[in-house]
Amino acid sequence: MSAPGTPAAGGYRRERQAYLRGFVLAALLTAVPFIMEGTGGSSRTTLLWVIGGFGITQILVHVRYFLHVDLSPERREELALLVFSAALLALMIAGMLWILYNMYVRMM
Amino acid sequence: MNAPAPALGLTMSVEPQHAHEARSASALSGFWLFMMSDLILFGLVFATYVTMLMPASFALGPGPKAIFELPGAALETAVLLTSTFTFAMASLAIKYERGRREVVAWLLVTLALGLTFLSLEVSEFARMLAAGDRPQRSGFLSAFFGLVPLHGLHVFAGSVWLVLMLIEIARSGLSDSVRSRLARLALFWHFLDLIWVGIFSVVYLGGRA
Which residue among A54, A58, A67 places its CB closest to the CB of B187? Predict the structure, then answer.
Protein backbone atom coordinates (compact mmCIF):
# COMPACT_ATOMS: atom_id res chain seq x y z
CA MET A 1 0.00 0.00 0.00
CA SER A 2 1.62 3.29 -1.04
CA ALA A 3 1.14 6.48 0.93
CA PRO A 4 -0.54 9.40 -0.84
CA GLY A 5 1.89 11.94 -2.27
CA THR A 6 4.55 9.37 -3.22
CA PRO A 7 5.50 9.01 -6.91
CA ALA A 8 3.70 5.65 -7.06
CA ALA A 9 0.47 7.23 -5.78
CA GLY A 10 0.78 9.93 -8.46
CA GLY A 11 1.23 7.22 -11.07
CA TYR A 12 -1.86 5.43 -9.80
CA ARG A 13 -3.98 8.58 -10.02
CA ARG A 14 -2.69 9.35 -13.49
CA GLU A 15 -3.35 5.85 -14.82
CA ARG A 16 -6.79 5.75 -13.21
CA GLN A 17 -7.60 9.08 -14.86
CA ALA A 18 -6.47 7.66 -18.21
CA TYR A 19 -8.69 4.59 -17.80
CA LEU A 20 -11.63 6.80 -16.81
CA ARG A 21 -11.04 8.95 -19.87
CA GLY A 22 -11.00 5.84 -22.08
CA PHE A 23 -14.17 4.52 -20.44
CA VAL A 24 -16.07 7.80 -20.85
CA LEU A 25 -14.92 8.18 -24.47
CA ALA A 26 -15.97 4.60 -25.28
CA ALA A 27 -19.35 5.12 -23.57
CA LEU A 28 -19.98 8.32 -25.56
CA LEU A 29 -18.92 6.68 -28.83
CA THR A 30 -21.36 3.85 -28.08
CA ALA A 31 -24.24 6.06 -26.94
CA VAL A 32 -24.36 8.34 -29.98
CA PRO A 33 -25.06 5.68 -32.66
CA PHE A 34 -27.46 3.81 -30.33
CA ILE A 35 -29.44 7.01 -29.65
CA MET A 36 -29.45 8.03 -33.31
CA GLU A 37 -30.76 4.63 -34.28
CA GLY A 38 -33.25 4.47 -31.42
CA THR A 39 -34.81 7.87 -32.11
CA GLY A 40 -34.88 7.38 -35.88
CA GLY A 41 -35.16 10.39 -38.17
CA SER A 42 -31.77 9.97 -39.87
CA SER A 43 -31.48 8.47 -43.34
CA ARG A 44 -30.05 4.97 -43.70
CA THR A 45 -26.88 6.28 -45.39
CA THR A 46 -26.18 8.81 -42.62
CA LEU A 47 -26.82 6.15 -40.00
CA LEU A 48 -24.43 3.65 -41.59
CA TRP A 49 -21.67 6.26 -41.90
CA VAL A 50 -22.12 7.31 -38.26
CA ILE A 51 -22.12 3.68 -37.04
CA GLY A 52 -18.99 2.89 -39.07
CA GLY A 53 -17.12 6.04 -38.10
CA PHE A 54 -17.96 5.82 -34.39
CA GLY A 55 -17.24 2.07 -34.36
CA ILE A 56 -13.76 2.47 -35.84
CA THR A 57 -13.02 5.43 -33.56
CA GLN A 58 -14.10 3.41 -30.54
CA ILE A 59 -11.85 0.51 -31.55
CA LEU A 60 -8.93 2.98 -31.67
CA VAL A 61 -9.93 4.29 -28.21
CA HIS A 62 -9.89 0.71 -26.84
CA VAL A 63 -6.50 0.03 -28.39
CA ARG A 64 -5.07 3.24 -26.95
CA TYR A 65 -6.57 3.23 -23.45
CA PHE A 66 -7.16 -0.44 -22.61
CA LEU A 67 -4.60 -2.36 -24.67
CA HIS A 68 -2.06 0.46 -24.16
CA VAL A 69 -0.81 0.44 -27.72
CA ASP A 70 0.17 3.89 -28.98
CA LEU A 71 2.78 5.42 -31.25
CA SER A 72 5.58 5.41 -28.65
CA PRO A 73 8.77 3.44 -29.42
CA GLU A 74 8.15 1.09 -26.44
CA ARG A 75 4.94 -0.12 -28.06
CA ARG A 76 6.31 -0.45 -31.58
CA GLU A 77 6.18 -4.28 -31.62
CA GLU A 78 2.53 -4.53 -30.62
CA LEU A 79 1.67 -1.71 -32.99
CA ALA A 80 3.41 -3.48 -35.90
CA LEU A 81 1.57 -6.69 -35.00
CA LEU A 82 -1.78 -4.90 -34.89
CA VAL A 83 -1.27 -2.97 -38.11
CA PHE A 84 -0.04 -6.06 -39.95
CA SER A 85 -2.98 -8.16 -38.72
CA ALA A 86 -5.41 -5.39 -39.63
CA ALA A 87 -3.90 -5.15 -43.12
CA LEU A 88 -4.15 -8.92 -43.65
CA LEU A 89 -7.71 -8.89 -42.40
CA ALA A 90 -8.64 -5.97 -44.66
CA LEU A 91 -7.25 -7.83 -47.70
CA MET A 92 -9.09 -11.04 -46.85
CA ILE A 93 -12.40 -9.37 -45.98
CA ALA A 94 -12.39 -6.99 -48.95
CA GLY A 95 -11.42 -9.81 -51.34
CA MET A 96 -14.06 -12.15 -49.98
CA LEU A 97 -16.84 -9.56 -50.16
CA TRP A 98 -15.79 -8.46 -53.64
CA ILE A 99 -15.79 -11.98 -55.09
CA LEU A 100 -18.97 -13.11 -53.40
CA TYR A 101 -20.85 -9.93 -54.27
CA ASN A 102 -19.85 -10.37 -57.90
CA MET A 103 -21.13 -13.93 -57.88
CA TYR A 104 -24.35 -12.77 -56.23
CA VAL A 105 -24.96 -10.12 -58.88
CA ARG A 106 -24.25 -12.57 -61.71
CA MET A 107 -26.55 -15.21 -60.29
CA MET A 108 -29.51 -12.96 -59.55
CA MET B 1 21.19 -8.49 -18.44
CA ASN B 2 19.75 -5.48 -20.25
CA ALA B 3 19.47 -2.06 -18.64
CA PRO B 4 16.34 -1.89 -16.44
CA ALA B 5 13.39 -0.86 -18.58
CA PRO B 6 10.54 1.20 -17.15
CA ALA B 7 7.39 -0.88 -16.83
CA LEU B 8 4.51 0.58 -18.85
CA GLY B 9 0.85 -0.19 -19.38
CA LEU B 10 -0.39 -3.63 -18.49
CA THR B 11 2.66 -4.81 -16.58
CA MET B 12 1.73 -5.45 -12.99
CA SER B 13 4.64 -3.68 -11.30
CA VAL B 14 6.22 -0.23 -11.55
CA GLU B 15 9.65 -1.57 -10.50
CA PRO B 16 12.37 -2.01 -13.15
CA GLN B 17 12.37 -5.41 -14.81
CA HIS B 18 13.78 -8.47 -13.07
CA ALA B 19 14.28 -11.89 -14.62
CA HIS B 20 10.75 -13.11 -13.79
CA GLU B 21 9.29 -9.90 -15.19
CA ALA B 22 11.25 -10.35 -18.42
CA ARG B 23 9.73 -13.84 -18.65
CA SER B 24 6.31 -12.41 -17.98
CA ALA B 25 6.83 -9.78 -20.69
CA SER B 26 7.77 -12.43 -23.24
CA ALA B 27 4.69 -14.48 -22.27
CA LEU B 28 2.62 -11.35 -22.84
CA SER B 29 4.14 -10.95 -26.33
CA GLY B 30 3.25 -14.55 -27.09
CA PHE B 31 -0.29 -13.86 -25.94
CA TRP B 32 -0.44 -10.93 -28.36
CA LEU B 33 0.32 -13.36 -31.17
CA PHE B 34 -2.55 -15.60 -30.06
CA MET B 35 -4.89 -12.61 -29.92
CA MET B 36 -4.00 -11.49 -33.41
CA SER B 37 -4.72 -14.95 -34.83
CA ASP B 38 -8.01 -14.88 -32.92
CA LEU B 39 -8.66 -11.47 -34.46
CA ILE B 40 -8.22 -12.94 -37.96
CA LEU B 41 -10.67 -15.72 -37.06
CA PHE B 42 -13.27 -13.20 -35.86
CA GLY B 43 -12.68 -11.01 -38.91
CA LEU B 44 -13.42 -13.83 -41.31
CA VAL B 45 -16.52 -14.92 -39.42
CA PHE B 46 -17.61 -11.24 -39.61
CA ALA B 47 -17.03 -11.28 -43.38
CA THR B 48 -19.08 -14.48 -43.70
CA TYR B 49 -21.86 -12.81 -41.75
CA VAL B 50 -21.82 -9.78 -44.05
CA THR B 51 -22.10 -11.99 -47.14
CA MET B 52 -25.25 -13.45 -45.58
CA LEU B 53 -26.97 -10.06 -45.33
CA MET B 54 -28.44 -10.22 -48.85
CA PRO B 55 -32.21 -10.86 -48.77
CA ALA B 56 -31.69 -14.10 -50.75
CA SER B 57 -29.81 -15.48 -47.71
CA PHE B 58 -32.84 -14.98 -45.46
CA ALA B 59 -34.54 -17.87 -47.33
CA LEU B 60 -37.93 -16.16 -46.76
CA GLY B 61 -37.13 -16.21 -43.03
CA PRO B 62 -36.58 -13.19 -40.79
CA GLY B 63 -33.88 -10.58 -41.49
CA PRO B 64 -31.93 -8.50 -38.98
CA LYS B 65 -34.72 -5.94 -38.57
CA ALA B 66 -37.18 -8.62 -37.49
CA ILE B 67 -35.07 -10.32 -34.82
CA PHE B 68 -32.70 -7.81 -33.21
CA GLU B 69 -33.88 -5.62 -30.35
CA LEU B 70 -32.01 -2.42 -29.61
CA PRO B 71 -32.52 -2.19 -25.81
CA GLY B 72 -31.13 -5.70 -25.27
CA ALA B 73 -28.04 -4.96 -27.35
CA ALA B 74 -27.53 -1.63 -25.54
CA LEU B 75 -27.71 -3.35 -22.15
CA GLU B 76 -25.24 -6.07 -23.18
CA THR B 77 -22.88 -3.40 -24.51
CA ALA B 78 -23.07 -1.35 -21.29
CA VAL B 79 -22.40 -4.41 -19.12
CA LEU B 80 -19.40 -5.55 -21.15
CA LEU B 81 -17.89 -2.06 -21.40
CA THR B 82 -18.21 -1.58 -17.63
CA SER B 83 -16.57 -4.97 -17.05
CA THR B 84 -13.56 -3.94 -19.13
CA PHE B 85 -13.22 -0.83 -16.95
CA THR B 86 -13.49 -2.79 -13.69
CA PHE B 87 -10.82 -5.21 -14.94
CA ALA B 88 -8.59 -2.23 -15.66
CA MET B 89 -9.11 -1.11 -12.05
CA ALA B 90 -8.09 -4.59 -10.86
CA SER B 91 -4.92 -4.34 -12.98
CA LEU B 92 -4.09 -0.97 -11.42
CA ALA B 93 -4.76 -2.29 -7.91
CA ILE B 94 -2.19 -5.04 -8.51
CA LYS B 95 0.34 -2.79 -10.20
CA TYR B 96 0.28 -0.21 -7.39
CA GLU B 97 0.18 -2.79 -4.56
CA ARG B 98 -3.18 -1.63 -3.19
CA GLY B 99 -3.74 -4.91 -1.43
CA ARG B 100 -5.34 -8.25 -2.15
CA ARG B 101 -8.78 -7.23 -0.92
CA GLU B 102 -9.13 -4.46 -3.51
CA VAL B 103 -7.83 -6.66 -6.33
CA VAL B 104 -10.24 -9.47 -5.49
CA ALA B 105 -13.15 -7.01 -5.15
CA TRP B 106 -12.59 -5.57 -8.64
CA LEU B 107 -12.13 -9.05 -10.12
CA LEU B 108 -15.37 -10.23 -8.50
CA VAL B 109 -17.24 -7.23 -9.94
CA THR B 110 -15.74 -8.03 -13.35
CA LEU B 111 -16.78 -11.68 -13.06
CA ALA B 112 -20.31 -10.70 -12.04
CA LEU B 113 -20.58 -8.36 -15.05
CA GLY B 114 -19.19 -11.05 -17.37
CA LEU B 115 -21.76 -13.56 -16.11
CA THR B 116 -24.53 -10.95 -16.42
CA PHE B 117 -23.50 -10.40 -20.02
CA LEU B 118 -23.59 -14.14 -20.70
CA SER B 119 -27.02 -14.59 -19.13
CA LEU B 120 -28.41 -11.67 -21.18
CA GLU B 121 -26.98 -13.25 -24.31
CA VAL B 122 -28.28 -16.72 -23.53
CA SER B 123 -31.78 -15.38 -22.89
CA GLU B 124 -31.62 -13.52 -26.22
CA PHE B 125 -30.66 -16.73 -28.05
CA ALA B 126 -33.35 -18.67 -26.18
CA ARG B 127 -35.97 -16.13 -27.27
CA MET B 128 -34.83 -16.46 -30.90
CA LEU B 129 -34.82 -20.25 -30.79
CA ALA B 130 -38.27 -20.34 -29.19
CA ALA B 131 -39.57 -18.17 -32.05
CA GLY B 132 -38.23 -20.72 -34.56
CA ASP B 133 -35.25 -18.59 -35.62
CA ARG B 134 -32.77 -21.47 -35.44
CA PRO B 135 -29.35 -21.65 -37.16
CA GLN B 136 -30.72 -24.13 -39.72
CA ARG B 137 -33.53 -21.72 -40.68
CA SER B 138 -31.43 -19.72 -43.18
CA GLY B 139 -27.90 -18.82 -44.22
CA PHE B 140 -28.32 -15.51 -42.42
CA LEU B 141 -29.25 -17.19 -39.13
CA SER B 142 -26.40 -19.74 -39.50
CA ALA B 143 -23.97 -16.85 -39.87
CA PHE B 144 -25.48 -15.03 -36.87
CA PHE B 145 -25.23 -18.14 -34.67
CA GLY B 146 -21.68 -18.62 -35.90
CA LEU B 147 -20.55 -15.12 -34.99
CA VAL B 148 -22.24 -13.86 -31.83
CA PRO B 149 -22.09 -17.09 -29.76
CA LEU B 150 -18.42 -17.43 -30.79
CA HIS B 151 -17.81 -14.18 -28.93
CA GLY B 152 -20.00 -15.42 -26.07
CA LEU B 153 -17.89 -18.58 -25.90
CA HIS B 154 -14.79 -16.42 -25.55
CA VAL B 155 -16.40 -14.46 -22.70
CA PHE B 156 -17.31 -17.78 -21.07
CA ALA B 157 -13.71 -18.98 -21.40
CA GLY B 158 -12.52 -15.67 -19.93
CA SER B 159 -14.93 -16.07 -17.00
CA VAL B 160 -13.68 -19.61 -16.28
CA TRP B 161 -10.13 -18.30 -16.42
CA LEU B 162 -11.11 -15.51 -14.01
CA VAL B 163 -12.56 -18.04 -11.54
CA LEU B 164 -9.33 -20.05 -11.74
CA MET B 165 -7.34 -16.88 -11.05
CA LEU B 166 -9.50 -16.07 -8.02
CA ILE B 167 -8.81 -19.59 -6.70
CA GLU B 168 -5.07 -19.14 -7.29
CA ILE B 169 -5.17 -15.75 -5.49
CA ALA B 170 -6.98 -17.35 -2.56
CA ARG B 171 -4.36 -20.11 -2.36
CA SER B 172 -1.10 -18.28 -3.00
CA GLY B 173 -1.83 -14.54 -2.86
CA LEU B 174 -0.61 -12.07 -5.46
CA SER B 175 2.41 -14.12 -6.50
CA ASP B 176 4.51 -13.43 -9.58
CA SER B 177 2.69 -16.19 -11.40
CA VAL B 178 -0.69 -14.63 -10.56
CA ARG B 179 0.46 -11.20 -11.76
CA SER B 180 1.80 -12.59 -15.00
CA ARG B 181 -1.36 -14.61 -15.72
CA LEU B 182 -3.67 -11.75 -14.80
CA ALA B 183 -1.81 -9.46 -17.20
CA ARG B 184 -2.64 -11.86 -20.02
CA LEU B 185 -6.23 -12.31 -18.88
CA ALA B 186 -6.60 -8.50 -18.77
CA LEU B 187 -5.40 -8.31 -22.36
CA PHE B 188 -7.87 -11.06 -23.35
CA TRP B 189 -10.77 -9.37 -21.57
CA HIS B 190 -10.09 -5.96 -23.15
CA PHE B 191 -9.70 -7.65 -26.55
CA LEU B 192 -13.16 -9.25 -26.20
CA ASP B 193 -14.71 -5.86 -25.58
CA LEU B 194 -12.99 -4.57 -28.72
CA ILE B 195 -14.54 -7.46 -30.72
CA TRP B 196 -17.92 -6.60 -29.20
CA VAL B 197 -17.65 -3.07 -30.64
CA GLY B 198 -17.53 -4.75 -34.05
CA ILE B 199 -20.50 -6.96 -33.20
CA PHE B 200 -22.83 -4.25 -31.95
CA SER B 201 -21.86 -1.98 -34.85
CA VAL B 202 -22.15 -4.53 -37.67
CA VAL B 203 -24.78 -6.95 -36.38
CA TYR B 204 -27.15 -4.92 -34.20
CA LEU B 205 -26.85 -1.28 -35.28
CA GLY B 206 -25.88 -1.98 -38.90
CA GLY B 207 -28.51 -4.72 -39.19
CA ARG B 208 -31.33 -2.50 -37.97
CA ALA B 209 -30.26 0.60 -39.93
Answer: A67
Taking the C-alpha atoms of residue A4 and residue A10, their distance in angstroms, rounded to an integer, is 8
Closest CA to B103 of B162, B50, B143: B162
Cα–Cα distance list, A59 to B29, B201, B209 (Å)? 20, 11, 20
pTM of this structure: 0.89
B113 CA to chain A: closest CA distance, Å? 15
- A18 and A54 both lie in a single domain: yes
Of A8, A55, A81, the CB nearest to B96: A8
Task: State how many domains chain A has.
Answer: 2
Q: How confident is the model at residue B143 (pLDDT cuts 50, 70, 90)?
A: very high
Rounded CA-CA distance B206/A45 in Å is: 11
Q: Is A52's Cβ below 8 Å from some Cβ in B?
A: yes
Q: How long a stretch of residues is chain B?
A: 209
Rounded to whole angstroms, the Cα distance separating A31 from A55 reads: 11
| Domain limits for position A104 | 71-108
Given an 8 Å threshold on Cβ–Cβ distance, is A55 in contact with B201?
yes
Task: Please give the Cα distance from B106 to B96 (Å, whole number).
Answer: 14
| Residues B90-121 pLDDT 10s | 999 999 999 999 999 999 999 999 999 999 99
ipTM of the complex: 0.90
SS3 B102: helix
Could you tell me if A105 and A64 lie in one domain? no
Domain of B95, in residue numbers:
29-208
Give the pLDDT of residue A2: 46
The per-residue pLDDT for range B40-93, each reduced to its tens digit, is: 999 999 999 999 998 889 999 999 999 999 999 999 999 999 999 999 999 999
Which among B73, B92, B206 has the least Cβ separation from residue A16? B92
Rounded Cα distance, B71 and B65, in Å? 13
